[in-house]
Design brief:
The protein has 100 residues and is α+β, with helices and mostly antiparallel strands. The chain has helices spanning 2-8, 25-33, 67-72, and strands at 15-17, 37-39, 47-49, 58-59, 74-78, 87-89. The protein is built from three helices and six strands. The strands form two sheets. A four-stranded antiparallel beta sheet has the order 4-3-5-6. The chain has a two-stranded parallel ribbon with strand order 1-2. The two termini are 23 Å apart.
Length: 100
């Protein structure tokens, strides 16, 4: 559907908001190939590496954050992505009140 908007309709946009269900390697890489910025939450049990390979993958909810990283984000590798592929991760607060 997004490809049709870009390639057939020529709809101009730069960013894509996605739900965590779409935060898969295939979908995220496709957005990057389209040269679109995407924003999506990662599920808390997603395995990531912020140590450049010096420590094992850990759950995204167990990462430690410095004050600077809270403001600027941190570069991480998501398990299953290509070796050199990094994404920028930001930590945000969410409320317990969710809508269905």
């Amino acid at each position: 559907m997004l490809s049709a908007l870009v390639y057939q309709k020529g709809l101009p946009f730069t960013g894509v908001l996605m739900d965590s269900g779409y935060a898969t390697k295939t979908v995220m890489r496709h957005r990057e190939q389209m040269q679109k910025t995407y924003y999506c939450p990662l599920k808390t049990n997603r395995r990531v590496d912020d140590s450049a390979g010096t420590t094992p993958y850990q759950r995204v909810d167990s990462l430690t954050w410095t004050q600077a990283q809270r403001k600027q984000g941190k570069s991480i590798k998501i398990r299953g992505f290509p070796k050199d592929h990094k994404v920028k991760l930001f930590r945000g607060a969410s409320s317990d009140r969710r809508t269905a």
